[in-house]
Amino acid sequence: MHRRTFLATLPAAALSASAMAQDGSPDGWQPGAERFLRPDVHAGDRPVGASFASRSAVYGMSGAAGTAQPLATMAGIDILKRGGSAVDAAIAINACLGFLEPTSSGIGGDCFVMLWDPSAGKVMGLAGSGGSPRGLSLETVRSRAKNGVLPALGAVTVSVPGAVDAWWMLHQRYGKLKWAELFEPAIHLAEQGAPVPDIIAYYIRHNLTAFTRAGSGVEETDNAMRTYGLSGQGPAAGGVFRNPDLARTYRMIAQGGRDAYYVGPIARTIDAYFKRIGGWLSKEDLAAHHGEWVEPHMTDYRGVGVHALGANTQGIATLQMLNMLERFDLEKAGFQSPLSIHLQVEAKRLAYEDRARYYADPRFSKVPVEWLVSKEYAAERAKLIRPDRILTPVHPGQAPSHGDTTYFSAADKDGMMISMIQSNFRGMGSGLVADGLGFMFQDRGQLFSMRDGHPNLYAPGKRPFQTIIPGFATKGGKPWMSFGVMGGDMQPQGQTQIIVNRRDYGLEIQSAGDSPRWHHEGSSQSMGEDSPGLPANGLLRLESGVPDQTKAALADLGWTIGSPDGGFGRYECVEHRMDGKDRVYAAASEMRADGCALAY
Q: How far apart are CA 76 and CA 70, in angstroms?
């Protein structure tokens, strides 16, 4: 049932600095442009739906796609119209985003997928995550660490990229069009060029500044500046960007398949490059890599089946949070109320203690996943949550002895829906671009722990803890939502807020994403996402659209309230509906990013 009794009375979201961007011209937009920061100016009035909604969802009967870049969305729709599957569309989208959105994606990174297979009638999972270089020892890694944490940039944090192999595995099982056809849109864009949207342009410039800063730790920056720097500063918003090196690399992959990357000419170039700069990634590491099909975990949240990948990801944190929240009446607590947000944040803090203690590569450590996602364990942990106070201190549960990312979604005429997430980890990645290849390598290895005895302790050939997680939800054993909220540790927090907004508060898919978000920072960790210097209970950031009374009440309860910083994630979603015998897709996109959703 669609509940709207609260919608007309809630304050609309104010314009925030994180939603603005500029090319530096007098009439341009820029994040933080002071003249546009008016707390008394709110969104325009909509005649239907939530007061804070940015726009309507889009609808179609034959297919849908939502991405963080409109040109990528258009490419996905074009592939679907050619007769391609949702998987074909997703691969084409991801290839385009590697050019269009290098701040969040690229073939130097990893990839995770959940999809609805209509023939099997179930959700399938794919983990496309690479391991650390086999020639890089723990001793060497520790020698590069500072205060027990690996550096954010440079070769020591580069792990084997898993994206291209994941694309190949998906296409081998679910592709309809020829492999080479899927790269045509990206090759065309990279050769002909495309205008860079505001937010992406801003973050490219921001990343290039970090790479070239004295003491950055990046062994070689000439290639990155040659690929992305243009005049030396990065692209301007609306300026045309080209990447002919990446187009050539895509042509090699289109013609030679995944082997062109992992054992062919691309692998040889990568090997020679890392030898030249004193890094460790080798052609042997690339040749040994293979992704894996995995069985997603699932929990029932008030009649909604919420699915998550285990492996070395943080996916089950979403399930842990929802299992605890199911013990509370969030509908009665009220949308955007102090109690509702307090309960959600406390569930996050408890789940993230387990995340810091147990999550790791299951090929190296026994991760007690079934216990962590069980309803029994959630009931125990939920008893620790008090509605009138903050739990202090927070500890992980005791396991039984036996035991800056892009997201996109697509759906096709046959009912296949794919939820796909891909990332180079922090922003553009490590800062390293191999000679003439046109893409940057991920710095995912920063998320290894340096703590002896920890399941996520660095080891050669081991996959680091992963933040990137796709989302998927079903109802009655049928597909419902293919969705995701990208953005580091925000992802389980964001996924939980989407499910709560939809199931407990009755918001439709666009409003569920437009709703003001919270982001709690400061849970225990043992890897590169640690945030030193935060208050004992962490920092609770609230978007400006959260009601002032709610902010004040949470502060009175003891939460340290942080200002909005743009770190609230970016959301895309495709929903499956049946209107009698007709299949209808609804698609929503993130108003905090440059993208859009389309359906036909």
A: 10
Edge-to-edge strand ranges of the sheet holding 58-60: 58-60, 582-589, 570-579, 478-486, 471-475, 304-308, 297-301
| 73, pLDDT greater than 80 | yes
Cα dihedral 248→250→256→262 (10° resolution):
100
Give the model's pLDDT for residue 16.
33
Backbone angles phi, psi at 321, to 5 degrees: -60, -45
Q: How far is CA 144 from the centre of its chain?
A: 27
Task: Look at residues 404, 379, 370 and name the one whose alpha carbon lies nearest to residue 105.
Answer: 404
Instruction: Kindly state the DSSP code that residue 406 receives in the 8-state scheme.
Output: E
CA 386, chain centre distance (Å): 31
Please state, in angstroms and rounded to a whole number, the distance separating the CA atoms of residues 296 and 472. Answer: 10
Q: Can you point out the beta strands (E) in 292-413?
A: 292-294, 297-301, 304-308, 406-411
Torsion angles phi and psi, residue 182, rounded to 5:
-70, -20
- Taking CB atoms within 8 Å and a gap of at least 24, the contacts of 539-543 are 540/345, 541/565, 541/567, 541/568, 542/341, 542/516, 542/518, 543/13, 543/16, 543/516, 543/517, 543/518, 543/568
Question: What integer pLDDT is reported at residue 560 of this predicted model?
Answer: 96
Q: If pLDDT is split at 50, 70 and 90, which confidence band does 20 have? A: very low
3-state secondary structure of 68: coil
What pTM, to 2 d.p., does this model score? 0.90
Q: Give the integer Cα–Cα distance in Å for 202 and 199.
A: 5
Closest CA to 102 of 206, 193, 198, 203: 203
Contact 72, 101 (CB under 8 A): yes
Kindly state the DSSP code that residue 464 receives in the 8-state scheme. P
CA distance 396 to 122: 32
The reported pLDDT for the residue numbered 246 is 98
Q: What is the pLDDT of residues 163-200, one digit of tens each?
A: 999 999 999 999 999 999 999 999 999 999 999 998 89
How far, in Å, CA of 514 to CA of 568, rounded? 11
Least confident of 18-32, 138-152, 359-373, 443-457: 18-32
Could you tell me the two tokens for 341?
């947000």
H helices within 515-570, ranges in order? 548-557
The residue type found at 18 is S
**Which DSSP category does 30 fall into?**
-
E strand or H helix that includes residue 491: helix 490-503
Cβ contacts of residue 168 below 8 Å, gap of 6+? Answer: 179, 257, 258
426: number of Cβ within 10 Å: 23
Per DSSP bridges, beta strands 561-562 and 539-542 are parallel
pLDDT exceeds cutoff 70 at 550? yes
Pairing of strands 539-542, 304-308: unpaired
Reading the block at residue 207, the tokens are 């990343």
